[in-house]
Please model this.
Amino acid sequence: MEAQNLAVEETFVEEIDESRQNRAAYDYLCRLYEVQKWLVAQLGEAIVPLPIELEEDLRNGVLLARLAHSFLPNFVKNDQIYDIEEEKYESSGLVYNHTDNIIQWRKACLQIGFPEFWIPETVDIYEGRNVRTIFCLHALALFLHRIQGLTAIKNEIGNLEFLPQDIETAKHRLLAEGVTNCDFQHTIHYTTIKVTVIDDISKAIIDGSVEDFMQILSDHKNGFVFVKKDLGQNYFNQLKKSYEENNHPQIDSKKVQKVIDKVNEKEALHQLENYLKTNSTEKQNFEELSNILTDFDADKVIEAALPYYDEYLTINCKSGRIEPEQLRNVMDECNACVQLKTSLKEGDVDDVFDSLKNPSLNLEDILYKNNDAQYSESLKMNEFDNCIFTMLHKLREIIIEINFVNKLRYYISTNNFEGFGTFLERSNFEGYNPKYCNEYIDEIRKNGLKNKKELKNIIQKINEKEKNEIKEKLKSKSVLDIEDIREVINITEEISYEEEILIEKRRSKVANLIEVNEKLKTDLEDLEKSLELYKSGEMPIEEIIKQIEVIKMEEDEVEHHQDENVQAKNELRISMNPLEIIFYYLQTNPRYLSNFFCWDKIEAKDFVNTIVFPIFNFGHDEREEILLVRVFAKILTRYIGSLESFEQFLDESWAANRLVLAFKVMLQALPSNHIATLFSKSDLVEFKKAEAAEQHLNFSPIQMYEKLYNKHAKSLEEATNDSEVSKVLITSKKFLSKWTILFTKKAAESLEIPRNVRYLLKICANKLRRHFKNLEKKDADRFVAKFFYSTFFEDYLQAHNKKVIDPSLTKRQKEIIQLIIEMMELGADGKGFGEDFEYMQSLNTTLIQINDIFTNITSNHLIRQGSAFTLNREPMFADGIKPILHIETKYINHIFQHIQLCKNTVFPEKEESTLRDLLEKAKIPNHEVAILFLKPFPKENDQIDGGQLLIETKKLVLELLDAGCKGSTIKELLTNDEEIINGYDEISDNESENDSLRAKKDALSHNLSQLEKYGIISTENDYDDILKQISHDLTAKDEIQNNQNHQLEAYDRKINELKAKKNEYQDQVEQYRKFIEKHRK
Model:
């Protein structure tokens, strides 16, 4: 047993050692990349090798000597650098003379006062032991930034990720050179400031010579650091002021440096305040912030912390003065977060615990060393986002939870049940019941305890044991009777219908806002027309002012009356049920509208524009677009199924032309169908150059003949047989062929076919192959290409043909472009030049190439069927809101008139008789616009949609039962006179309570009659539908609650969207009002 424990301990030690080595390797690789990036900034990217090659490249000293020249150009000159272009090194490798470069660099470092103990020996660099050289260069970068203001080296820790093999390589390099710790940030110190120049500074101040003063400060030999030449006057003024205020005291070097530091800080803080006033959209990246903070305190800046700095400062310091200490605290806190994230990714348990102990995180009061492994494990499992405030809050929560759980585990392991219970009571843990304490402990011992959530589940599970037993007993009943409902009420918390009522109110609010917005939108359109008339002098300004006043007045009236007449609105909501169900199925079952299309009395354009588009809200939302395209997929499927041979596909028949027209109208109008231009600017530039280089381009033989010989050709044949004409014609056709192929290929590469079109292409290909078993793939692809061209691409080309592509094109260039488009049309449609254009028939090979390219376009864009549009027959809508259809009443009338004429075609099957019946019950509203909340027929256990009236009715039933009213049916609840309130006879003489119950019974009776009036429930089954609904509400309470919360959130989002749109319209009206007022004056 002891040997086993020893083995485990050794393994644990090895794992820790391995983890520490990994962290050291990560830190070293960060330094390596930081140094390489800094060298690029100093010397240029062409000179500096990649980080992985840097150590080896340092051996010849060329890079080091070039660096020395950059900071001491007169000390190390370029012509003194041996093999500066590295030609000898690349051809023959290292030679001893390369050590001269290293020696020059070492001397230059000593010349500027860089500590010698940091500088590696020449032989170490030459022989490739350059890990310490990388550290030295890092320190040198810091040093040069201080004394010369060179570019600061960036701390990239937390920003970089490395492959495992890179980490392994770095570990071996560190071990080979005996380096165990790469965190050297605290070993860099300022150089000692000299005091011999103080008299010269005093003299410069007395003489008022800023130039002499700055010359002294800027000379690095004098020991002052972070001197910025553009702040020289500020240094001078500040030091002079101090000098004069203190009656010319002795100035020491520390005071001078302090003034430099304070002026730098003040300037950096001023820049930071300006930066924070900048809008977030204007901050392209954090480079400006990085530069400002580097000027403030370069040692503290970590690049990965820049988003944290920005967020923290923007939120907490946007207004008011920022103090230096305040900024340092912010940077320390943000840096601590980055260091912790890095430790979690790259470090071991001790590394994580050390990062947590950072005072800036304010966690020291809750950290316990015994829990360090669990802190590390739990934090590594958590994802921390880029919000620093969320991270800090989450960190503290996780630490406290681990401490809490470990405390409970300790009590259980030591059998301290009293301590366990006392600890939970003092913690006020939700649901804790002392009488179940032993059961809680037994459950934890059995299954363990990881977090508070598990503890909460354990407590809930044991607390609800009795409730679950009763629920199990009632599970066998499909519908609870009144006595069952009484029992459930007794063991559960109060059932509330407040959420359902809120949902109905939100739904009403959505409908109202849609109505208001539509009115505002129409008013705005009318107002914009009036403004145009005013600008043209056709309408007086007073009329427009009156129009704006009317808009404002009507808006106020709508706002004032929107909550009035609630009962009427409830009744209207219920009366809309048939319409909402019919339009739900017209949207979600493509069979019905594809049946409608089969009715040949309706024209294709009318079908699309006045039937389909209004039903699908003109495809403006993704859901409606998806469902709309599914209808056309069904229409296409039926058309293909009706064909007897594949040659009939898209022939010139009436059915084919009607189908093509319907698809054209639909695809042109869908808002999501936008395509890039056919000809890019760069291609047109090349085309214009090529065309200008051709002296003769002409495709009219007769015209050329007449121009050459000043006489008419006897025939086309005579013109084409002429050698000069033929020569020009051949050249012209070659040019046309070349550029048509080029533009077609470019179109193939750049054309992004909309996803709805790709979906239809896939449907077309699949249905053709299934219907015609012997159809080869190449023929199927050709037919799909033809379908694509006929329904979509033809109009796309014609649109380009009609518009001027580039105003700078010459007349001849425009004519050739039109020919190219016509060639593309012919090729895409699989057509060629016939006998009428025999002289152009040689271009038919080009047209075949175009057809192949075009066929490949469609073939390459075919996607997996269903991957673009994946909705079930009765879709569940993810946002929790019943789909809303905002439709003008004129369209409802038009749709219903046509459906009535062919309802047996649209709804042919027996099972659709219910939809035909609903057509008779549906009442078309008399106002201009209807807002329909679409829904399917309710299933057996689904909630009946009776609006707020039904919810109030269920609530009244439960209140009567809870009050103790007798009766085994709802009718008996209403008719029994004796009152037992909460089960106590002694208070039955309380008249006010009984009056309240009578009022509730009257309200219930009224509600039931209203619901029966609209066919929602029936007295014939003793209002059994109400009991079914209440049963469902009680037995599926948690599921319903979750769904209700989801719906409320979704409605709130929708309301916010609609309010934003309303504000947008109101702002626009206000802008017009100001415009008119301005012109009125």
